[in-house]
Write a structure and sequence with these properties.
CATH topology: Endonuclease, Chain A
Order of helices and strands: HHEEEHEHH
CATH superfamily: VSR Endonuclease
Strand order of the largest sheet: 1-2-3-4
Radius of gyration: 14 Å
Number of helices: 5
Largest sheet: 4 strands, mixed
Distance between the termini: 14 Å
Number of strands: 4
CATH architecture: 3-Layer(aba) Sandwich
């Protein structure tokens, strides 16, 4: 499948900057204790189309989302499904974790991210 080049809504730049400076506790934990020094470049609060992904790994075409309580509502689930569908149109794979996964299963989350990145890079090359 041909991959579409990523589009970026530059009107979201200020919002993305604010989100980078005000990450949730779980996003900070994942960023500072795993993703920041991961051997493959990962971006935080990356604009993709009209959305801001929590984390994005270009080499693996991977979006990593950390979901808080607003994602449990029907409206949140519908929004997430639409967002995931748009990311997938760009050939991106979306990994989702709940805040409680970061809090209680951090090592497992990191292993899943590592495994997914390695697998995606291998399959894309």
């Amino acid at each position: 499948m041909e991959q579409l080049p990523l589009k970026k809504n530059n009107k979201l730049l200020n919002v993305a900057r604010i989100l980078r400076r005000n990450m949730t506790r779980q996003e900070k934990h994942l960023w500072y204790d795993f993703l920041r020094y991961y051997p493959v470049k990962i971006y935080k609060q990356r604009i993709i189309d009209n959305f801001i992904a929590d984390f994005y790994c270009h080499n693996a075409r991977l979006v990593i989302e950390i979901d808080g309580s607003q994602h449990y509502t029907m409206q949140g689930k519908i929004y997430d499904e639409a967002r995931t569908e748009i990311f997938e149109r760009y050939g991106l794979y979306v990994l989702r974790f709940y805040n409680k996964d970061i809090d209680n299963k951090f090592e497992g989350v990191c292993q899943m991210i590592d495994k997914t990145i390695k697998s995606r890079i291998e399959s894309l090359s």
